[in-house]
């Protein structure tokens, strides 16, 4: 984050802390219960927000060198990300051209990607490298490479189109509205820590909602996050994207010194939400990505929690921060999302979003607009 933005956010957060307030929406709104229950709504969201929309799926630093690879499941599509020998990023459907078996699993480095079924092998550029009993097949090697997907890396984030209808231009321009903000973060230089995956018995929007308001800090996170962070948040929107910053409790120390002596870094934590709803959590030590996508039923989601460390920070301290945040997310947030889903299923009551939940309002209205 650049110094000017950090100073502006520090000033706004300090004002909110001293006034014991948070940024507000103009009024309360209601979200219908069927938004979290309807099979028709789920199908609309999968199509409009996920299948036909470029997806932030990884950090570029998860593929740190030529011939590195990473496998993912994105909307039931097996995806293979690679860097070829020249370091160029590629995305493919992770399926051998012979019978469709995956040619890689997990992550790592390899000059050849070999199908475990019949031994067909591919380069990290997706070209067929060799196949046993080659003379038995008529199709030339040029027609039997891995099936490519549109992909780009922008500002240290990997964007993929999982449907052939998603164009390269869509993928390339998917973060343009928030480009200046993301560019200043320097994420392209961050290094990978770990990746966790969860299957959650809750609608994907309920999982996202956990990272879009600080109203719950004092109760759900009373003994964890609330010990360090204040709920006096500030928010900004960038057309289809948003920024949410909330301060360390120690930010009040800034009130005792002139602004020219303030620290140049953000005195808190910042969450950028990228369309269609992927979180980037930025702190002094590194960054995390939280990606929730819909499952097969309205009350199911698949969630990834990915950690990176700033190369200028202590890797061990960054890992501890990643693990602390991940443990809070897994032990406090995700069980609450599942409990909320059960309650909504039982009551069928519409949900009020208060004036003190402005980003929830922004995102639910954005999601509704995409489905209409």
Question: How would you sum up this structure in a few lines?
Answer:
With 372 residues, the chain is of the alpha+beta class. It has helices spanning 3-18, 39-51, 168-172, 179-183, 204-209, 217-220, 315-347, 358-370, and strands at 29-31, 55-59, 68-74, 77-83, 89-93, 107-109, 112-114, 121-123, 128-130, 150-154, 157-161, 191-200, 234-238, 241-247, 268-274, 278-282, 286-294, 301-309, 351-353.
Topology:
Blueprint: H1 3-18, E1 29-31, H2 39-51, E2 55-59, E3 68-74, E4 77-83, E5 89-93, E6 107-109, E7 112-114, E8 121-123, E9 128-130, E10 150-154, E11 157-161, H3 168-172, H4 179-183, E12 191-200, H5 204-209, H6 217-220, E13 234-238, E14 241-247, E15 268-274, E16 278-282, E17 286-294, E18 301-309, H7 315-347, E19 351-353, H8 358-370
Antiparallel strand pairs: 1-19, 2-11, 3-4, 3-6, 4-5, 7-8, 8-9, 10-11, 12-18, 13-14, 14-15, 15-16, 16-17, 17-18
Q: How would you describe this structure in keywords?
A:
globular, seven-stranded antiparallel beta sheet, alpha+beta, 372 residues
Question: Can you describe this structure?
Answer:
The protein has helices at residues 3-18, 39-51, 168-172, 179-183, 204-209, 217-220, 315-347, 358-370; strands at 29-31, 55-59, 68-74, 77-83, 89-93, 107-109, 112-114, 121-123, 128-130, 150-154, 157-161, 191-200, 234-238, 241-247, 268-274, 278-282, 286-294, 301-309, 351-353. With 372 residues, it is an alpha+beta fold. The strands form five sheets. A seven-stranded antiparallel β-sheet has the order 12-18-17-16-15-14-13. The longest helix has 33 residues, at 315-347.
């Amino acid at each position: 984050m650049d110094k000017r933005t950090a100073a502006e956010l520090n000033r706004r957060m300090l004002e909110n802390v001293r006034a014991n307030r948070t940024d507000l929406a103009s009024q309360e709104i209601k979200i219908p219960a069927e938004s979290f229950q309807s099979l028709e709504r789920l199908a609309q969201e999968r199509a409009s927000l996920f299948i036909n929309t470029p997806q932030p799926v990884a950090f570029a630093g998860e593929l740190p060198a030529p011939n590195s690879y990473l496998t993912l499941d994105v909307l039931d599509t097996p995806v293979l990300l690679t860097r070829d020998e020249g370091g160029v990023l590629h995305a493919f459907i992770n399926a051998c051209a012979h019978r469709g078996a995956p040619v890689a699993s997990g992550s790592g480095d390899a000059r050849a990607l070999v199908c475990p079924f019949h031994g067909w092998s591919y380069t990290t550029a997706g070209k067929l490298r060799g196949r046993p009993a080659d003379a038995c097949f008529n199709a030339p090697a040029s027609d039997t490479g891995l099936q490519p997907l549109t992909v780009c890396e922008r500002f240290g984030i990997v964007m993929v189109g999982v449907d052939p209808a998603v164009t390269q231009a869509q993928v390339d321009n998917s973060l343009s509205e928030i480009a200046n903000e993301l560019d200043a973060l320097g994420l392209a230089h961050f290094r990978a820590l770990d990746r966790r995956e969860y299957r959650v018995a809750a609608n994907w929007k309920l999982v996202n909602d956990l990272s879009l308001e600080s109203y719950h800090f004092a109760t759900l996170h009373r003994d964890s996050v609330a010990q360090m962070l204040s709920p006096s948040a500030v928010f900004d929107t960038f057309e289809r994207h948003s920024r949410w910053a909330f301060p360390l409790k120690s930010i009040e120390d800034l009130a005792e010194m002139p602004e020219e002596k303030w620290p140049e870094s953000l005195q808190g934590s910042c969450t950028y939400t990228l369309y269609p709803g992927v979180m980037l959590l930025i702190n002094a030590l590194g960054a995390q990505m939280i990606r929730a996508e819909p499952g097969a039923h309205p009350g199911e989601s698949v969630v990834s929690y990915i950690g990176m460390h700033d190369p200028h920070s202590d890797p061990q301290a960054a890992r501890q921060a990643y693990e602390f945040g991940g443990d809070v997310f897994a032990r406090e947030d995700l069980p609450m999302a599942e409990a909320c889903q059960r309650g909504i299923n039982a009551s069928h009551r519409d949900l009020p979003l208060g004036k003190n939940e402005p980003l929830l309002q922004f995102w639910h209205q954005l999601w509704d607009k995409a489905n209409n």
